[in-house]
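User: Please predict structures.

Assistant: First:
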Amino acid sequence: MNVALLGHGTVGRGVVQIIESSVPTLKVTRILELPDRCTEPRMTSNFDDIANDPEITAVVECMGGLEPAHTYILRALDAGKSVVTSNKAVVAAYFQEFVEHAAKSGARLFIEATCGGGIPWIASILKAKRIDKISAISGIMNGTTNYIIEKMRDDAVDFDVALAEAQRLGYAERDPTADIDGIDVKNKTIIGTSVAFGCACQKDIPTTGIRNLKIADLTFLESRGYVVKLHGRATQQDGRYAAAVEPVCMPLRTLEADVPSNFNLVTLDGATIGTLKFYGQGAGSLPTGNAIVQDLLDCAEGAEPTYRFDEPLAWDPALLKGSYLLRTKAEAPEGAKPYLEGYWRLDGLNVETARALYEKQLEKDPAAFMAAFPQEA
């Protein structure tokens, strides 16, 4: 099967390496690149060369960002070419539109590589859904922030030092905003929620990152039996659903607390299967490239992923309700209970209320930090 590649960066090069070393049934015949980077005959800077090539069956999009990725994906689908993408931002923003265009043209959309790197997360959700109603999904979905937290813990260094090391190793981008502010996990949570619950998950789910996390927070929480992890989660019940991204105080000696370095751990809960957890490399050239090539092989074998958005679920943030830890040097919010010097506990907050409260606190104390306790705590 002939394949075109949009983007020849870290992930794109991983796809080429895997195909050329291990998968003789696939062939990369075209690569879209910038005009000054077209260094071999199969490279082109004109997308028309790909869209109008009848020999190309599938288009791999790993450019990142919203445009021109959104336009190129639609053009490829409208031309009857199946699309495999690792771009979680564009899928989170335009998932339903892509599915509608694929259905109209008879093309297929494959999105495994958008969530969890090399972990077969989307495929596992779809497989579980054949039998079960999935009641919840959750997980550590960003390797960069997990690496930063573990570096802070292991070396007793503060956030900025750990971030700089993550950037040196290539785990974090020069602009780390999408990772450390939770945007990357937000996109993955929106995609996972949409697939798991069969609804078009709303785009503005409450999202908090770890930008203000300090080594003192980790040391204090560890003395109380917790470690902070950036967590995406969603739940549905009785025709309602909720989703959020926020730091969560995970009890020590749980699987989530022990996830090392830049690894991911994602979880689903099904009616008969119970709780399933999936662990592996959450990002990187070869893990993400592997997920893309797996999708290409499924495409070549005629697989047709089915994504539905017709479940009439109503948004209800009260489904994610619990207690929160707040560190602040400013006056604490009304109802906060002293937890230890400089720390406060707030009970009975849903995820939207908690995010709004934290935003107000940041106006008074830009360095404030907030994390959720486990719902049973």
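Second:
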Amino acid sequence: MKNSKRFVGNFVIASAIAGIVLLATGIVVHACTDGATATEVSFTQAWQPCDLNLIDQLWQGWGVTDDSWNPAGISDACNEALPFAKVMNAIALIGGAPTVPGIFHQRGDYYLESRANQTPYHADVYLRFIENNGPGVEALSEAGDHTDLDCPIFNYPGVATPNPGNPNAEMLAERSAVLVHEMWHHWQNANGYDSSHMDGPRGSCHAGAGACDWFYPHAPGSALPDGTTSDQLGSLNKTNVVNGVGLYFHSPYQIMAEFEGDVAIYGPAFIPFAIRQEAQNVGNYHLSTNFVNGAGFTIGNPVPFP
């Protein structure tokens, strides 16, 4: 995310988190500006709240295993006021992406792409909690094996829409999209592409240093040269580059905006409508702010909410 010019498994049994809780006894749990918004709480209640079997799977599959999470709530894994549980919520929202035809990409592709390990998209990495990488920095993906997640995507209460220099962009939809965005940097690295952002302001990008990308337009469900469509499972991991021109390609800000659009317009019924509205708001912010050549559309227009 902002200023990220540096490029930057098997599931475990239920006793894993319980063991961590025992080992972490006595650790003072306090990180960032902690607290849970009503939207965060509503989502926690919507998906199997405090299911330690499921949390074990997410903990391992998304590499939230570094000891940096000790003061960030790993010993209180069901407390959505703390960063660890907020990451679990963000992953669960990715798992709630739609599966219907006519979307940008399938749930399974977002799910596999955003995983830290056991994925065809990139080498194994892990997520690390960092309290401060600089003002407004939400996350950084370093060259190699990890992604840092910073306080601006966890701070309470946050604001309705992120804006340049805002240190409190705590929103569930943004946090999920940040995971999708950052893991795409690892995809770029794995496939030999330049993983840096451009500096702004530049062209139609109104963001600052290290926060501008190109947008490579494609319609939801668009046809690909191999006879498949972009909304079929596996199509996110494909490219169509001709003479150096990305006819079907994705930048990190683009994939997060497409994810937001899919969740906002086609999110399944169990996702609270307030979260779909968050996805629309933050997706439209990125579409209007982070692309040098402009995206040319906004979420909800011309496709309305169903």
